[in-house]
Amino acid sequence: ILRWLPHGDVGTVPTEAADAGDVPRRGASTVALLGLIAGSSFLLEGVAMEWSAVYLRDGLGAAGGTVGLAVVVFSAGMAASRFVGDRLVGRFGQPIVVRIGAGLAVVSLAVMLLVPSVALSIVAFGAVGVGMGPVVPLAFRSAGWTARTRGGTALPIVVTAGYTGSIVGPALVGPLADAFGLRIAFVVPLVACAVVAVAAQATATTGPPVR
Question: Exposed, middle or buried by CB within 10 Å (0-12, 13-18, 19+), for 93?
C-alpha cells in the first residue's frame, strides 16, 4: 500500500543531495507560495470538517444522520485521492495534479452554493475531498526539497502556514455566517481553493523519483 503514497521523509533533505547541490534553492516568493498553498488547503479542510454538517443542517435543512455524511464523504474523498496521488504525479507532474484538483474543488463548491440541494452538496464535498486530497502532501514534499538561502529546508515555514490556515478558516466562517449567512461564508473555502489553483506552479520541484 505504501507505494501508492508519497515517498521519502519530506522533513529532511538527504545530506548527499545537499552536499551535491541537488536541493533547489528557490527564492522567498516560492516558499511564500508553498506556504499559501498549505495554508489555503488546511483552511479548506478545517472548514469542511467543522462546518459542512452545520451547512447541511442549518443552511439546507438536512435531517438527523444525513448531516454527518458531508464529513464522511469529504474524508473518504481525500483518503482515496491520496492513495493514487503518487501515480498521478508520476504521469502528469505535481503542478498539474494540484491545479486540476483545486479547480475541481472550486467548481464543486461553486455548484454547491448556486444549487441549494442536500444530495448535491454531499456529492460536492466528496469531490472537494478528491480534488484537494493530494495538495498538502505535495506542498510539504516540495517544501522539503526547497532549500532556504540560510540553510535548511522550507518545510517548517510551510507546515506552520498550513496549521495557521486550519485555525483561521473555521474561526473566520463563524462571524461571516452570523453576519451574512452560511452560503456567503462558504465563499471563503472556495476562494482558498482558487488560490491553490493559481499558485500550483510553486509545487514544481526536484526530489526523489516517483516510483
Answer: middle
18 CB-contact burial (10 Å; exposed 0-12 / middle 13-18 / buried 19+): middle
Report the 10 Å Cβ neighbour count for 104: 18
Tell me how far the alpha carbon of residue 174 is from its chain's centroid.
21
Return the C-alpha cell found at 45.
479542510
pTM across the whole model: 0.83
User: What crossing angle do the helices spanning 187-199 and 94-114 adopt, rounded to 10°?
Assistant: 160
Cα-Cα-Cα-Cα dihedral of 115, 119, 120, 124, to 10°? 130
Read off the pLDDT of residues 32-82 as tens digits, 9 standing for 90 and up.
999 999 999 999 999 999 999 999 999 999 988 899 999 999 999 999 999
Query: What is the C-alpha separation between 43 and 77, in angstroms, rounded?
Result: 17
List the beta bridge partners of residue 25. 147
The helix or strand, by DSSP H or E, that contains position 93, with its residue range, turns out to be none
- pLDDT, residue 147, reads 67
